[in-house]
Design goal:
- By secondary structure, the protein is of the alpha+beta class.
- Among the domains are: 15-140, no CATH class; 310-401, no CATH class.
- 31% of the residues lie in helices and 15% in strands.
- The protein has ten helices and ten strands.
- It has helices at 2-27, 39-45, 64-73, 83-88, 115-140, 152-159, 252-275, 283-288, 310-313, 352-358; strands at residues 32-36, 59-63, 93-99, 108-112, 317-323, 330-336, 361-367, 376-380, 384-389, 397-401.
- Strands 1-4-3-2 form a four-stranded antiparallel β-sheet. A four-stranded antiparallel β-sheet has the order 5-6-7-8, with no helix packed on it. A two-stranded antiparallel ribbon has the order 9-10.
- Strand 9 (384-389) and strand 10 form a beta hairpin.
- The longest helix is centred in the N-terminal third of the chain and has 26 residues, at 2-27.
- It is flat, with a radius of gyration of 43 Å.
- The two termini are 65 Å apart.
- GO terms for molecular function: dynein heavy chain binding; dynein light chain binding.
- Keywords: Cytoplasm, Repeat, WD repeat.
- One of its GO terms (biological process) is cilium movement involved in cell motility.
- One of its GO terms (cellular component) is inner dynein arm.
């Protein structure tokens, strides 16, 4: 027990030494200097701790022109000791790195003053970021270890049998022999034909050949039948109606009110009459141009990875998804209470006004490499129905609001 406690303390000390070594790696690079930035300077450079930089993302680029303006306009500027290096700096942006330290009340930063130091610092930061990401991946995705046998596999192999047991072995393909038929008479004896009689005596139904067209039909009547149409069957006179001329001005108000009341029914019947003609013989058309509906293919989708933020998307449905045009590992997902593709069988019991005022409508930017937390959280005053990136500028994202 004591040995275990000593080892754990040694491991903690070793981890602390490693973290200090990583911090000293940046300070040991030629062209990298430590600098203390007050809060007002951080806000001026747009490099505030907790906003633009953090412990997880400590590095950020700032404009060189903003640094030079602060150097020239402020009497005791924090950049005054590095005036010569800043004037000789070639690029327009300066790389700053936040140094997390809870022991001091000041905010220290690394500042790269040469192009070579920027390249070396970026390489070390990328390596450190990859190590942290791989460490998180190893913690979340566990790989199964090897199975340790305790002796039960011997009994399992003894009691196991093969799924297929060979009973007969023969040559394949089997050659076919020529069949020889011979005449066998019924008078030969017991090997003649045998009549098989059923125990139930069923009723025999005799079917007669129909030679007369009126054998099973009612007698022909010369009177007008009930289903015979009284209007002409000629196609040119099928819809020819006779009516008396009336003055529409006398009935204009009644017609307007009647149309407003029954306009939906009129439109539906006009659509049906335009598509279907109940008095046209179209059997030959259907026989000549028979069209069957195409069979829909069934898609079987297997889940590969799950991206979900329970805190922001609980009880929500996916409404729209779009991929970034240049960064193939980024995609944007919008969520809504009821998806547009979801069929609501019953009337919704939620309060739309309360949901629109008090609930959030998140639009999350996810990365394929990180499925635990979204990279960016966007808020919208209403639910977003469609999303689309600008194909020429990946920084522009357009969304369409839902009507209801």
């Amino acid at each position: 027990m004591n040995l275990t406690m000593i080892n754990s303390e040694n491991m903690k000390k070793t981890k602390r030494k490693k973290s200090k070594t990583k911090i000293n790696n940046y300070a040991g690079i030629e062209g990298v200097e430590k600098i203390v930035l007050p809060d007002d300077v951080q806000k001026l450079l747009m490099c505030e701790v907790g906003e633009q930089v953090s412990v997880q993302e400590p590095w950020a680029y700032v404009q060189k022109q903003t640094v030079m303006d602060n150097l020239l306009t402020t009497e005791n500027s924090v950049f005054l000791p590095y005036k010569v290096e800043l004037e000789n700096y070639e690029t327009d942006k300066i790389l700053l790195g936040y140094i997390p330290d809870e022991t001091d009340d000041i905010d220290e930063f690394y500042m790269c003053l040469t192009a070579e130091s920027v390249i070396k610092t970026a390489a070390i930061a990328k390596k450190h970021r990859d190590e942290q990401r791989q460490k998180l991946q190893d913690i979340v995705c566990k790989t199964p270890g090897e199975w340790t046998s305790l002796g039960s596999d011997i009994n399992t192999n003894k009691n196991n049998r093969a799924l297929l047991e060979v009973l007969i072995e023969t040559q394949y393909p089997i050659p076919k022999d020529k069949t020889k038929f011979r005449v066998h008479w019924a008078k030969a004896g017991d090997t003649s034909y045998t009549e098989l009689l059923s125990t139930d005596n069923g009723d025999s139904i005799l079917k007669k050949r129909i030679d007369n067209s009126v054998q099973v039909a009612p007698s022909h009547a010369h009177n007008e039948a009930q289903t015979v149409c009284t209007f002409p069957k000629n196609a040119t006179a099928n819809y020819q109606y006779n009516y008396d001329e009336i003055d529409p001005v006398l009935f204009q108000s009644k017609l307007d009110s009647y149309y407003v009341k029954h306009s939906l029914s009129f439109n539906n019947w006009l659509v049906i009459n335009g598509l279907f003609n109940l008095y046209t013989l179209d059997y030959h058309v259907l026989a000549a141009k028979s069209i069957l509906p195409p069979s829909r293919k069934k898609f079987h989708i297997n889940e590969y990875m799950t991206y979900s933020d329970i805190q922001r998307c609980k009880g929500r449905m996916v409404e729209a998804v779009t991929w970034h045009p240049t960064m193939s590992w980024l995609f944007v997902v919008s969520y809504s209470t009821f998806s547009s593709y979801y069929y609501i069988r019953n009337e919704a019991d939620d309060d739309e006004v309360f949901r629109a005022v008090h609930t959030l409508n998140p639009v999350l930017v996810w990365s394929v490499n990180d499925y635990l937390m979204p990279k960016l959280v966007l808020h919208s005053p209403r639910e977003v129905m469609h999303l689309s990136f600008c194909p020429y500028d990946g920084n522009i994202l357009i969304g369409e609001y839902k009507l209801f």
